[in-house]
Inverse folding.
């Protein structure tokens, strides 16, 4: 499955032999990999602006556990998909992590096909997140070009109000509303009200507004 090969996979596990086996397998499938021997080591090198990624994360490690690292990343607003690696006794913890937003978990021992399927699914999710973030950035830039009046018209248009109602609300003529509406649509790069609504709603969802 060719998806998001440019997104880096971070392996965080204190077992060197296990890290090396995952590294060999994933690099043989042309993925970009970075290995870390501890949660603390990952956090030391982690930079929020370093782009998209996903994590293969041992749930139980000396020092900071995988779950604690996951919670810390969540607190920092990181939304990278996480695949937890777990032993049989830690499956209940992994299930709870998935319920809290983790992407998936694999119980040792697992086969290569299961790992690759989980990675492809996580990378597809990461790619969707990256695309959504890019589109949200474009929308934000376009919104910033609107005048105060154009933004007032936009808010009423996405509420489904007709031009006459908008004119009454703002105390301006219908022709003036039409002029502002046309300029606003051009600046937002949309051709229909449906496109406008979808664009603004997706942006607000991405920003949590």
């Amino acid at each position: 499955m060719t998806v998001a090969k440019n997104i880096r996979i971070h392996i965080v596990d204190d077992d060197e032999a296990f890290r090396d086996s995952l590294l060999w397998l994933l690099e043989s499938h042309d993925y970009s990999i970075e290995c870390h021997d501890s949660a603390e080591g990952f956090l030391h090198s982690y930079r929020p602006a370093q782009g998209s990624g996903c994590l293969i994360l041992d749930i139980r490690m000396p020092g900071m556990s995988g779950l604690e690292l996951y919670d810390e990343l969540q607190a920092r607003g990181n939304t990278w998909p996480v695949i937890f690696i777990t032993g049989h006794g830690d499956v209940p913890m992994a299930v709870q992590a998935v319920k809290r937003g983790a992407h998936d978990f694999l119980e040792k021992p697992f086969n290569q096909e299961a790992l690759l399927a989980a990675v492809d699914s996580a990378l597809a999710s990461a790619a969707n997140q990256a695309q959504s973030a890019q589109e949200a950035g474009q929308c934000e830039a376009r919104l910033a070009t609107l005048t105060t009046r154009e933004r007032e018209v936009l808010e009423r248009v996405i509420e489904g109000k007709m031009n006459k109602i908008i004119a009454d609300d703002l105390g301006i003529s219908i022709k003036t509303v039409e002029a502002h509406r046309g300029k606003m649509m051009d600046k937002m790069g949309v051709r229909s009200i449906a496109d406008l609504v979808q664009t603004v709603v997706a942006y607000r969802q991405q920003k949590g507004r």
